[in-house]
Design a protein that fits this description.
With 708 residues, this protein is an alpha/beta fold. 37% of the residues lie in helices and 20% in strands. It contains 24 helices and 29 strands. The strands form 6 sheets. The chain has a 7-stranded mixed sheet, with helices on both faces. Strands 19, 24, 25, 26, 27, 28 and 29 form a 7-stranded antiparallel sheet that branches. Helix 15 links the parallel strand 17 and strand 18. It binds adenosine-5'-diphosphate and magnesium ion (MG). Magnesium ion (MG) binds next to loops.
Length: 708
């Protein structure tokens, strides 16, 4: 039976009746020793079959010489045997009827071609029998819900595993164990965690897919290094969104801006990370840049309601701690709350009027001094405040931090009894001085942060979720028709503009002329002033080469400019093939923008827009989305740019034609979409944007079509 088409029954794998540990020992310095010990230690309720030829029993459990010798075929096997023994072990398991095996052993496709070939053979071996594989080169899985630990990380030598409603899939084993440990220390538990290694058989999307349907999981977290199948990722993410299960992701490679752009700016500015980010944006996946912050956002999402508003109330014990927090929120452009009148009235029981409406609320400034009543009452009042969405408690050292945390936990409980499940994010800033406080919060089932930064990243994550909320965007229909078959290779400005014009993207008029005299004549059919540009497959950056002449008043000026340009190019670029000169109309505009598109190998066409001209490279101020986008989505892209204030009208300058630009971006995105896999890359740079009502015009363009 070839099982490629059989869905991965990961749910079954997590509830095996029996597990074989191949290479089990009592030696905790070895993977097999730790795997076995941890499986026993965390109370797995099924049968455990240690496989070890040399021992009768291990930790009091009877050993077996091989898989064939176990009383029943093990449902699941985990192996940390030397690489050269893996294939035989997999075959034995498969023949015995084992449903799935985890291969911890490394040095397969992670270590070159020979390893990759061996890995492929192993997968084939397993598939012949319909057995599924996790790994190789992984750290296994941890399923606190099922008391199933098939992971050798020393981080798991703890008394108890916290059960939570967060499911995690990680492409790095060590990172998974680290995240798990840090989370558990701070009161955050998981449903299941999977380290997926080389994904020889079961891959990232299989596990995400499982978690979407898993009743024990409310929030999905994933650490990704590379997605294998972009379309499947989009499908799974879409399914999670439909199921109302947030997916949070951290992806490595954010700063890998790709090698120097081969053809276009778009290729370097909308590289693979940006395409992934666009895929996340499209499907509502919350992309974060820090794994711990990701887990803490997941913890907050499982513990509290998602805030309806981002205004944050700060409750603290120190003026300094509060002030730093307020600054930090402001740095992140996150709003500080002004409380509702009822809240201020409630706080006035404990504080002088000025202090009662302050944000931060400093418990140290209470009229009666710090007391049980003040802590609990302040927390409750802020948690019930209707003008804020989040309560952030950065706690510095205080005379009795434990008591303070008890007060906050009680305030939270009272507020929650009233039905409000507003996020209450407690940051314990001291070191050991807060240990009792930490224990107190955990006792009340409340997790805590160690650093202010992480808490702020969580609030930022809420903001991202808020921005993506709502129903899927209506893309409308394609605004044009294209005959892609006719196109191939790199298209120069005039040809690229013709394609753009078919899609209603506004471009200026122009005519290609072979020489100076013809250029002068061509000007007669156009409106002055004119611009002349060299047409040459060998000159990509025309102005750098002296191949652009602007602001030419009449036909004579055009003729003279072409003659001068020809002489200049002959001297500076003697080898360049000059196909002619493009005479075009000069356009006036207030701002140069950049619109581009690229076909990402994983996620398909992406569209980008950003500050254009020389600012492209300097500012890297770009927005990238999967194509197509509607004009409304394009508008959102524009409003998220740093140059947005210039488009909207800045300090008395007139607002620009945002609507026309958004429309052009949408049209470009449709073009990229409709050209299908023949489409390579497109740069329209610059698009000159006029004042509101005056439109925008693409005055330079390059299009690269893939070969048929
Ligand atoms: P390249 O990018 O190959 O150097 P462009 O065609 O973009 O050449 O021209 C360089 C610059 O000249 C543009 O960024 C823009 O500022 C200006 N420019 C080019 N064509 C026009 C035009 N038709 N109207 C107004 N300005 C133009
Ligand atoms: Mg240009």
């Amino acid at each position: 039976m070839n099982d490629m088409t059989r869905p991965a029954r990961i749910a079954e794998m997590l509830e095996p009746k029996s597990v074989a540990v191949i290479g089990a020992s009592e030696d905790l310095t070895k993977f097999g020793g730790r795997l076995f010990k941890l499986l026993v230690h965390h109370g797995f309720e099924g049968q455990i079959y240690p496989i070890n030829r040399k021992r009768e029993s291990l930790l009091g459990i009877a050993c077996h010489t091989d898989i064939g010798a176990t009383p029943t075929p093990p449902d699941m096997a985990v192996m940390a045997v030397p690489r050269d023994h893996v294939k035989a072990a997999v075959r034995e398991c498969a023949e015995a009827g084992t449903k799935a095996a985890i291969i911890i052993t490394a040095k397969f496709s992670d270590a070159g071609e020979e390893g990759a070939a061996l890995e492929a053979e192993i997968v084939e071996e397993a598939r012949k029998f319909g057995m599924r594989l996790i790994g190789p080169n992984c750290l296994g899985l941890i399923s606190p819900v099922n008391k199933l630990v098939l992971c050798a990380s020393p981080a798991l030598f703890v008394d108890k595993l916290l059960v939570g409603r967060i499911g995690m899939v990680s492409q790095s084993g060590a990172l998974m164990a680290t995240i798990f440990d840090r989370a558990q220390t701070r009161g955050v538990g998981f449903s299941h965690c999977f380290s997926i290694g080389n994904q020889a058989d079961l891959d990232l999307c299989d596990f995400l897919d499982f978690l979407v349907d898993d009743p024990a999981t409310d929030v999905i977290c994933t650490y990704i290094e590379g997605v294998k199948d972009g379309r499947r990722f989009l499908e799974v993410a879409e399914r999670a969104r439909a199921a109302g299960k947030p997916v949070l992701a951290v992806k490595a490679g954010r700063t890998d801006f790709g090698a120097a752009a081969a053809f276009s700016h778009t290729a370097s500015l909308a590289g693979s990370y940006e395409a992934f980010a666009a895929a996340c944006r499209e499907t509502g996946v919350v992309l974060m840049d820090d794994p711990d912050a990701m887990i803490m956002l997941a913890a907050a999402l499982t513990r509290f309601d998602q805030p309806k508003r981002l205004e944050t109330a700060i409750l603290t014990t120190s003026g300094g701690g509060g002030a730093i927090t307020a600054d930090r929120l402001t740095d992140w452009n996150l709003p500080l709350a002004s409380y509702a009148p009822e809240t201020v009235a409630a706080l006035e029981q404990y504080y002088y009027p000025d202090n009662a409406k302050a944000n931060p609320i400093d418990m140290g400034a209470a009229i009666t001094g710090g007391s049980m009543l003040v802590g609990e009452g302040s927390a409750q009042a802020l948690l019930q405040d209707t003008a804020s969405g989040i309560v952030l408690c950065p706690l510095t050292t205080a005379p009795d931090m434990r008591l303070l945390c008890e007060c906050i936990a009680k305030g939270l409980a009272s507020a929650e009894a009233g039905g409000a499940r507003k996020p209450c994010l407690v940051v314990l800033q001291p070191g050991q001085a807060a240990n009792k406080a930490r224990a107190e919060l955990l006792k009340h089932g409340l997790f805590y942060f160690d650093s202010l930064d992480e808490a702020i990243r969580v609030i930022d994550g809420y903001r991202t979720m808020q921005a993506m909320a709502g129903t899927r965007a209506d893309k409308g229909g394609s605004p044009g028709k294209t005959s892609a078959e006719a196109l191939s290779g790199a298209l120069d400005e005039a040809r690229a503009k013709a394609v753009l014009a078919d899609y209603g993207v506004p471009v200026n008029r122009g005519v290609v002329a072979p020489d100076a005299a013809a250029a002068g004549k061509a000007a007669a059919g156009l409106k002055a002033p004119f611009v002349v540009k060299v047409v040459s497959p060998d000159i990509v950056h025309k102005s750098d080469a002296g191949g652009v002449a602007l602001n030419l008043g009449d036909a004579q000026a055009v003729e003279a400019a072409v003659a001068a340009m020809a002489a200049r190019l002959a001297a500076g670029h003697p080898k360049a093939v000059i196909e002619g000169y493009l005479v075009q109309e000069m356009v006036s505009g207030e701002l140069e923008m950049f619109v581009g598109a690229r076909r990402d190998p994983l996620f398909g066409p992406v569209v980008m827009v950003g500050a254009g001209g020389v600012l492209v490279e300097l500012l890297k101020d770009v927005a990238v989305r999967l194509a197509p986008v509607s004009p409304a989505e394009a508008r959102e892209m524009l409003l998220g740019l740093r140059v947005a204030p210039l488009l909207k009208g800045f300090r008395g300058s007139a607002p620009l034609d945002l609507g026309a630009l958004a429309d052009a971006v949408s049209r470009v995105s449709w073009l990229a979409h409709d050209l299908g896999d023949r489409f390579g890359e497109l740069d329209v740079n610059p698009v000159l944007v006029g004042k509101a009502g005056q439109g925008c015009t693409g005055v330079d363009a390059r299009l690269l079509m893939n070969d048929k």
